[in-house]
Amino acid sequence: xxxxxxxxxxxxxxxxxxxxxxxxxxxxxxxxxxxxxxxxxxxxxxxxxxxxxxxxxxxxxxxxxxxxxxxxxxxxxxxxxxxxxxxxxxxxxxxxxxxxxxxxxxxxxxxxxxxxxxxxxxxxxxxxxxxxxxxxxxxxxxxxxxxxxxxxxxxxxxxxxxxxxxxxxxxxxxxxxxxxxxxxxxxxxxxxxxxxxxxxxxxxxxxxxxxxxxxxxxxxxxxxx
Length: 225
Description:
Blueprint: E1 6-11, H1 15-26, E2 31-37, H2 40-50, E3 54-57, H3 66-75, E4 81-86, H4 90-100, E5 104-107, H5 111-123, H6 131-153, H7 157-167, H8 172-179, H9 183-196, H10 202-220
Parallel strand pairs: 1-2, 1-3, 3-4, 4-5
Helix pairs in contact: 2-3, 4-6, 7-9, 7-10, 8-9
């Protein structure tokens, strides 16, 4: 018995594009186009009615944004895969699509060469980006991590101790007692930490504190044998 085909919903406001995609995918034995839609609302209706395994979605729908469509589909509980197929520059929009809830991004001018491979990647549970977009995204993440580490390194030893204590859930009074400081001194250290880490609120300081404590705890773990 042959394996079940992966069902696909095509959402694009240009009929000629949908026809071309359907023809391309018809050549593949493991895919079947179960529905097509030419607008935002029609796409959501088809999604609810057909529950496809995967959606191939244009970002620029005539009535609304494809990014909004992804978020709404996820909010409605759609569990399948979403692959964006767009004319827009992937170096700008690929990360936005992934953050919205998509699993991959393909440029329309590369569809004939890469669409099928991309669909198989996301079907297998892996994200798909072109090598250039993947490298760029990795670079952004590395730069962000480096910036955060540099921020932590700008703290004094005492500020690091207090940030660690904040990450452990200690109150100002607890911290003052632990380090033999006044509450006013602890508040001054908190303000300095907030400024050095570029935090806009105490809630952001807490997020940074949790990350700092996690890093410090991980550094103290013995290496795995």
